[in-house]
Design brief:
binds magnesium ion; 16 helices; binds nicotinamide-adenine-dinucleotide; 13% strand; 9-stranded mixed β-sheet; 59% helix; alpha/beta; 9 strands; 331 residues
């Protein structure tokens, strides 16, 4: 494992460079503000008419159109939603890249799946912070920093990795540690993690358990507490001290049920499904499906979003959370 810290990165490499941050959403605002506070020369690229234009200016940042920013900047960090990157790249970014520039990403999807093919004379790197933008900004302000991954896809200047690490230092990530990976490893593991555990696995597990209790006649409110609400309390222990630390806080009865019933829920059938999901990521089937879904105007995605928002667990949850914040304010 290769891991880099502040001492391994030289921010002076960026001193005479202009850094263009394209997009001012979750990641974009945090990268732009952290780099500015680190003394870098930052300019934010947006489409004209973007609601973020004034927000970025009010935060003291210089703003231009994506095409102007791509032309002016020496380093262009693409922080647009993954599904629009290839179009914006083709229309506005590509013509602004000149030899020796660096094109950067925070996720490898478009490079790994060949949706963006940069010219050979530019560096192509990734700094992928391991968490959402508002936390990246918050941790920077607290002087801590968020861990990140670094990868180099093209090393035209032979300085690509050093420049990327300097960027990581500028957004505060080198304080926490920057782990070396490849575009392929980051893309495949990121998709696999969000599909099987972080987003897909966890929500499906909660929903199925909730439905099983409600179908058996238990009160939805009680099912909500048991299957959803308490999850955070236990995950916090796992996050801070590992599974053993979570098991230390629960009863022996809960711990025995954990060892004997958990593997029956997540059984060999689930393991085989996970392997299949990984193969679909590796062979590009998932990427093709998602790219085509976007080209079709996202009918399936938007239908699913609506159906899931209407699930009884969301109704019960909204009521109970309303009650809980009322109780909190009352304290
Ligand atoms: P986001 O949706 O929060 O922000 C995207 C920005 O792009 C917004 O400012 C939006 O107005 C702008 N935009 C959208 N369409 C546009 C268009 N056609 N032309 C110009 N601008 C447009 O996105 P995000 O979550 O910050 O993700 C950016 C990148 O960071 C992605 O590659 C993502 O995978 C990666 N990433 C995200 C997270 C996270 O937790 N959000 C973590 C690590 C990496
Ligand atoms: Mg991700």
């Amino acid at each position: 494992m290769e891991i880099y810290y502040d001492k391994d990165a030289d921010i002076a490499l960026l001193k005479d460079k202009t850094i263009g941050i394209v997009g001012y959403g979750s990641q974009g605002h945090a990268h732009a503000l952290n780099l500015k506070d680190s003394g870098m020369n930052v300019v934010v690229g947006l489409y004209s008419g973007s609601k973020s234009w004034k927000k970025a200016e009010d935060a003291g940042l210089r703003v231009g159109t994506v095409a102007d920013v791509a032309r002016e900047a020496d380093i262009v960090m693409v922080l647009l939603p993954d599904q629009v990157q290839s179009e914006v790249y083709a229309n506005e970014i590509e013509q602004g890249l000149s030899a020796g520039n660096m094109l950067m990403f925070a996720h490898g999807f478009n490079i790994h799946f060949n949706q963006i093919q940069p010219p050979p004379d530019v560096d192509v790197t990734m700094i992928a912070p391991k968490g959402p933008g508002h936390m990246l900004r918050q941790l920077y302000k607290e002087g801590i920093g968020m861990p990140a991954l670094v990868a180099v896809h093209q090393n035209a200047t032979e300085l690509a990795k050093q420049l990327a690490l300097a960027y990581a230092k500028g957004i505060g990530c080198a304080r926490a540690g920057v782990l070396a990976t490849t575009f392929r490893e980051e893309t495949e593991t990121d998709l696999f993690g969000e599909q099987t555990v972080l987003c897909g696995g966890v929500t499906a597990l909660i929903k199925t358990a909730f439905e099983t209790l409600v179908e058996a006649g238990y009160q939805p409110e009680v099912a909500y507490f048991e299957c959803l609400h308490e999850l955070k309390l236990l995950v916090d222990f796992i996050h801070e001290g590992g599974m053993a630390s979570m098991r230390y806080t629960i009863s022996d009865t809960a711990e025995y049920g954990d060892y004997t019933r958990g593997p029956r829920v997540i059984d060999e059938h689930v393991r085989e499904t996970m392997r299949q999901i990984l193969r679909e990521i590796q062979d590009g089937s998932f990427a093709r499906e998602w790219i085509l879904e976007n080209q079709a105007g996202r009918p399936g995605f938007l239908a699913q979003r609506k159906i899931n928002a209407e699930h009884p667990i969301e109704q019960v949850g909204a009521e109970l959370r309303g009650m809980m914040s009322w109780l909190k304010k009352d304290e």
